[in-house]
Amino acid sequence: MTVPSVDLAAPNGVKWSQPVGLFIGNEFVASSSGETIASIDPATEEVIVSVHAASAEDVDKAVKAAKTALKSPDWKLLSGSERGQLMWRLADLMEAKKELFATIEAWDNGKTYHEALEVDLVEAVAVIRYYAGFCDKYFGQVISTTHQKFAYTLRQPIGVVGQIIPWNYPLSMATWKLGPALACGNTVVLKAAEQTPLSILVLGELVKEAGFPPGVVNFINGLGKDAGSALVNHPLVDKIAFTGSTATASSIMATAAKTLKNITLESGGKSPLLVFKDADMDQAAKWSHLGIMSNQGQICTATSRILVQEEVYDDFVKRFIETVNTTSKVGHQWAEDTYQGPQVSKAQYDRVLGYIEIGKNEGAKVATGGKALSIGDKGKGYFVAPTVFTEVNPSMRIYQEEIFGPVVVILRFKTEEEAIALANDSIYGLGAAVFTKDLERAHRVSAEIESGMVWVNSSQDCDPRIPFGGVKQSGIGRELGEAGLEAYSQTKAVHVNMGNWL
Ligand code: NAD
Predict the structure, then answer these.
(1) Which residues of 157-185 are buried (b: 16+ CB within 10 A; e: fewer)?
(2) pLDDT in tens, 304-347
(3) CA of 193 to the centre of ligand 1 (A)
(4) Catalytic positions, please?
(5) What's the CA angle centered on 408, arms 242 and 395, to 5 degrees?
(6) Which structural domain, as residue segments, surrounds residue 35?
């Protein structure tokens, strides 16, 4: 049964017709159980709209649609160039609706409208275009062996790909996964995060409008324990690509092992940012602020552990706190001057405030923040003050555990060796930043830090052309860049005997 869209008007005046069904086979259909999940505005705690939630039966329907599309000549026999054209069209359609997408991202996620428009949407469109360009430029090799024989390799799609994304960058996370999967000719069932399904469903409308055959791209909303788990367990799914917490990544890996599914995991982090005594202190303070406080601190690569050489510790802390107090204006996601909106959900709000209490009880000093803020109407909204802890030691939970909010810890170190040891004292290894003017030190330390990415005199740079991913418990595999294509294709070797030779 198809489900009609619901007319919505956001607080910034943008109006549209929001699909609320499951996007399967290019149609918006009802969930088999009729169950829905409410999308909430985290600034007001009011329901925006309720969206159908997939059961295991619906997941089965979506996977079968993807399997049929994989074999269909309408998709399978498209040339790389033709696939690329579909993707270019999708990117153009997304760009034409960028204000609508930014509105939706701001409304159900709580991020600021201007950041959604200027950062998330720019990136999402760029990722689809980047991978569209690869469609007809990614192929196998011819390998000479003897005079009579040779072999060639084919790059073939992995098959039906299940993709599971988090709520912190809904559209960006979707495009990071869709871009390389479609470029390589796979078909997809993507599960949105239950907190933020709205932009993904509007993207479904554009997938259809761009001309993708039915079943190539399917979008479902649903709880992780139901829809997510059914996707990971499904025998017709050949690969799972997941972004989310390390705990969920670990359980997905265990489940995927049963059917030996190919996996890519992007999980949590507790990324260090090192400030050496020769660093430009203004730059260090500016990037340290952006590195933890942007996107409400809800960034997997957030540089949430700041390590500062003792000679410049006091100077850095003073400048950093000044930057936090003057830049991190907390407010509604629609206001031009808001830097930090509400946390995405009540669960995240409680989690962040819980960690702030843990830090206080562990004996760390609250240098600024350390509390909830009352900004919304009638005290509503999940607002947290940007919080800086000093007097922290590495055995504290606030040093070791991912908080995923606007909370940072600052420690001092004496030597480069100590800084590297502190940086690597973590189960995680996603990002890391190094502030120094010493060229040799910058590269030496970058090589020694256990992480998938390092920023020198910067934090959070991200580009479709650059591989993204973690080591240790921050993940397996890479997204973005050419490396992202490797996760979505497999190599077949064809041996050719040109005569009757042994
Ligand atoms: P989460 O793991 O609870 O949920 C992420 C997604 O997984 C959601 O779509 C959820 O529905 C689904 N899910 C939950 N349980 C599942 C299960 N048993 N089987 C299948 N799917 C399941 O994470 P979260 O708390 O929503 O997101 C925050 C976490 O995500 C943080 O730890 C953060 O570091 C991480 N994250 C990582 C990256 C990265 O690229 N490394 C990016 C963004 C967020």
Answers:
(1) bbbbbbbbbbbbbbbbbbbbbbbbbbbbb
(2) 999 999 999 999 999 999 999 999 999 999 999 999 999 999 99
(3) 8
(4) 266
(5) 90
(6) 14-267+478-490
Same domain as 338, residue 226: no
Ligand 1 midpoint to CA 374 (Å): 28
Ligand 1 site, CB within 6 A: 164-168, 191, 193-194, 223-225, 228-229, 232, 243-245, 248, 251-252, 266-269, 300, 402, 404, 430, 475
pTM: 0.97
Give the Å distance between the CA of 244 and the centre of ligand 1: 2
Residues 262 and 300 in one domain: no
CATH of the domain at 370: 3.40.309.10
Confidence class of residue 500 from pLDDT cuts 50, 70 and 90? confident
The minimum-distance atom of ligand 1 relative to the CA of 244 is: 30
The DSSP element (H or E) to which 59 belongs, if any, is helix 56-71
Examine the domain organization and report whether 240 and 315 are in the same domain.
no
Would you give the DSSP letter of residue 330? Answer: B
Each residue's pLDDT tens digit, 16-29: 999 999 999 999 99
How many other C-beta atoms are found inside a 10 Å radius of the C-beta of residue 188? 27
DSSP 3-state assignment of 316? helix
Residues 231 and 369 occupy one common structural domain: no
At position 488, the amino acid (one-letter code) is Y
Q: 282-304: per-residue pLDDT in tens?
A: 999 999 999 999 999 999 999 99
Residue 470 falls within a domain, yes or no? Answer: no
Give the model's confidence band at 377: pLDDT under 50 very low, under 70 low, under 90 confident, else very high.
low
Give, for ligand 1, the residue of 177, 245, 427 to mutate: max count of ligand atoms closer than 8 Å to Cβ: 245
Cα 242 to ligand 1 centroid, rounded to whole Å: 7
Other Cβ atoms closer than 10 A to 438: 15
Structural domain count of the chain: 2
DSSP assignments along 81-127, one per residue: HHHHHHHHHHHHHHHHTHHHHHHHHHHHH---HHHIIIIIHHHHHHH
196 with 281, same domain: the answer is no
Are residues 249 and 284 part of one domain? no
Mean pLDDT on 143-166 = 96
Q: Nearest C-alpha to atom 19 of ligand 1 is from which residue? A: 229
Residue whose CA is closest, atom 10 of ligand 1?
224
Q: For residues 87 and 195, state if they share a domain.
A: yes
